[in-house]
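Reopening this ticket.

The earlier resolution said the output was attached, but the attachment link was broken on my side. Pasting everything inline this time so it's all in one place.
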Amino acid sequence: MSKERADFTQGSILKKLFWFMVPILGALILQAAYGAVDLLVVGRFGSTSGLSAVSTGSQLLNLVTFVVTQLAMGITVLIARYLGEKCPEKIGGVLGGAALVFALISVGLCVLLVGFARPISVLMQAPRESLDLTVSYVRICGGGIFFIVAYNLLSAIFRGLGDSRSPLLFVLVACVVNIFGDLLLVAGFHMDAAGAALATVLAQAVSVVCAVVILLKKQLPFTLRRQDFRFNLQCRKFLAIGLPLALQEFLTQLSFLALCAFVNRLGLEASSGYGVASKIVNFAMLVPSALMQSMASFVSQNVGAGDLRRAKRSMFTGIGVGLGFGVVVFALVMTRGDVLAGVFSTDPAVIQNGFAYLKGFAPETIATAVLFSMVGYFNGNQRTLWVMLQGLVQTLLVRLPLAYVMSIQPNASLTKIGLAAPASTAVGVLLNIGFYLYLNHCRHGSGQNAPARRS
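Inline output:
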């Protein structure tokens, strides 16, 4: 990638944001395809119990992946900030410290997921018929967690450098490996959920190898030295940015696991239907997620360069782009949700349950267009403590209680449970608008034209 293309401090905001976001969106689509292909192949060639196992196990895997991604956001923001400040010599310390921190995280997650796969599956109230398959899925993915963590770390580094195309390339290769792995192990060897898990781990391993090769061949704006690989000052800086985001994401994903447990209590068909709907939801959320990740790098460079007005314009541009996609996805989910669910299962009851959840969830596709762009803006400003706080309010005070109340009603339905997501996001949008106005008031009151925080 040329220096001009990776410089977000000048030129058309819409054009640069769009072309930076498109590869990120492509990579997210392919990542979502991992789980979707697993569910599709198991739904077609496996059992209903295997479908439930992949649904429940992938919810846990999503928790780990999203938390690691948010923690790695601190690396993305810090690298982009140093590039904006014209201090690339500090980036080597960021990468060296990050390698050690994420290696320790990998070891801890491996021990947890492999050693406690059964208690975790029971805690998630996996249906009795699919418990053993769920345990196998969790244990196999836990054994390959190093590759999942390494992939997300490397992707964060590329995004911080302003390169969103390289991650798209190696995740494309990994997706192809996953598809062939699923067809071989599930459809060919009839390994059901365990085969899907093995294919996922193999695909992530390939993506890591590709990422390392591309990084080594890339012309980097900094030098990575042996003495950078230690717990240094840069570790504290990127953890200060990433930890609040990781904690917020952890509790948010816990709420989704709790939601999965609430749904599992309604029976095997509801569990499988919710699993199918969750995969469709993952695709529906791709554009807002890509905007959020792009916004963090885009805004951080401009904050580092001292151009706060351009950073604000970037946020509003992202909201506009997100709303355009959100309205289209909303209409598609509401009118063709049953057709989408039918892609993943031929069981009429599973399709009906999946569509029922999507009807309640649908407004979320519009609300997140605003929320995620604002969150990306605050991440780029290193206001991650606020992002954590507003996320906790959404999760603990709105989404989780509302989903629980809906699930215990005598006439409990997946549509009513699905409404918990857009309700909590609407609260988040209001909170973020209030904080944005407060932040602007403080900056105007102090006459601040430079970044609020300098590293």
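Reporter confirms the inline version is readable. Confidence is low (pLDDT under 50) at residues 449-455. The longest helix spans residues 48-84.
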